[in-house]
Design a protein that fits this description.
Molybdopterin biosynthesis moea protein, domain 2; Hypothetical protein af1432; five-stranded antiparallel beta sheet; binds fe (ii) ion
């Protein structure tokens, strides 16, 4: 399992994935197992205070107890919330390769539909969200066939199409996250739809504000905040009054400490779904490339969510990290044998060893015939997630070429 611990909880035998907090500029160059007390002492000396580690509960039963306690969330009243988590019980019925071309077709056609809906909002005409309902059904069915195929596409970002990518990605990620947490399958289509609609009110915000580079003024922010109420209005106009959907639309900017908007609700009022969509919304927004800034690497955003545990549910953030993996599918990674690869399938038992598709030889600086590699079966390791622009890799093109 993956966990965040303090340096005092680090034990010999744990596998260090990353540092989350350091008082110095020291960074982990390569991931690895802690082999001696000397390593722990060195990390302490360097000012490291918190780390992300991987370990098996059998080897470290005390650490497991601590993790289980922290994952508890307050009691909920929602119909979707009282079931026992069935984490990782779902079995994909199709392989990534089998599902991928169908996912691409759905993603491409959905892009056009969602774009039309979002742009019609700017022209004061009434928005029809029936098309999004059909897309939500299609996404849910795809995720149920194979949870990774559509998730790979969420890592392809275009600065000019952020808004509709955010709609689709929120649906895909929320559907996969809910499936991972064991939500009943019959609620998944509504959850996916709610996630896709959570920001629908943004369609009513003037483009000059939505696309504004840099910081918002107080006035911009006041207008932007209205997207929550506008979203609720749009849903009601289209008779989308399902509790699951309205919960996500209304509460995705609320925070556990009451610092969110529009109502400043505290943790006792926030459902599990509201907490989940808050995490998914921020994760997708911060990892996205925008016209005015590059997106953050997933690991940095997950670190941010963990660090802000007064605002985001720590237990759910930990589950979200487990759902996504340390290197989420669709990530470009550098391997220890001087090759580049794309992560195509997660490994929840050993998150640092997912399945990848190798396609580029760094030593010879040339593309090679794509080859799938299950990292549990080879000595090759992932050294780091890397940025496509650092290696001049056209991710949308490569992903579609080598998968499926
Ligand atoms: Fe929002």
């Amino acid at each position: 399992m993956i966990d965040t611990i303090t340096i005092d909880e680090l034990k010999i035998g744990m596998y260090v994935v990353d540092l989350t907090c350091s008082n110095s500029d020291f960074t982990v160059k390569t991931q690895g197992k802690v082999k001696s007390q000397k390593t722990i002492d060195q990390l302490k000396k360097q000012g490291v205070t918190k780390l992300v580690v991987e370990y098996t509960p059998e080897e470290f039963p005390d650490a497991k107890q601590k993790e289980d306690d922290s994952a508890e969330t307050p009691e909920k009243t929602d119909a979707t919330e009282n079931q026992e988590p069935l984490v990782n019980q779902h079995k994909n019925t199709k392989s990534v390769d089998d599902e991928f071309s169908r996912s691409c077709n759905l993603y491409d056609s959905a892009g056009g539909d969602v774009k039309n809906i979002l742009s019609s909002g700017a022209s004061s005409q009434r928005l029809s969200i029936t098309a999004i309902k059909e897309l939500a059904n299609g996404i849910t069915e795809s995720v149920l066939r194979n949870e990774y195929a559509m998730a790979i596409l969420t890592r392809i970002r275009h600065p000019s199409t952020y808004q509709w990518e955010h709609v689709l990605n929120s649906g895909v990620l929320m559907c996969g996250f809910s499936l991972y947490l064991g939500f009943p399958k019959e609620t998944l289509k509504q959850i996916t739809l709610g996630a896709m609609l959570h920001d629908i009110g943004v369609a009513k915000v003037p483009r000059g504000i939505v696309d504004k580079p840099g910081k918002f003024t107080k006035n911009d922010m006041d207008v932007m905040k209205k997207h929550v109420a506008w979203g609720q209005m749009i849903c009601k106009e289209d008779e989308m009054t399902d509790k699951i959907i309205l919960d996500m639309v209304l509460n995705h900017h609320e925070r556990l400490d009451g610092s969110g908007y529009p109502r400043g609700l505290g943790e006792e009022k926030l459902s599990k779904l509201a907490r989940m969509i808050a995490i998914v919304d921020v994760y997708d927004a911060m990892t996205a490339d925008r016209t005015y800034k590059k997106g953050d690497q997933p690991i940095n955003v997950l670190r941010y969510l963990m660090a802000n545990n007064k605002k985001f549910d720590r237990g759910l953030v930990q589950q979200f990290i487990k759902y996504l993996g340390i290197h989420p599918v669709g990530s470009l990674v550098k391997l220890s044998d001087e090759k580049l690869a794309i992560v195509v399938q997660g490994n929840r038992n050993e998150p640092v060893k997912p399945k990848v598709k190798i396609f580029y030889n760094l030593k010879h600086q040339r593309y090679i015939t794509a080859k799938e590699c299950d990292l549990t079966k080879f000595e090759i390791k992932i050294l780091a997630s890397v940025r496509p622009e650092d290696y001049d890799i056209n991710m949308p093109k490569i992903i579609r070429q080598i998968i499926g």
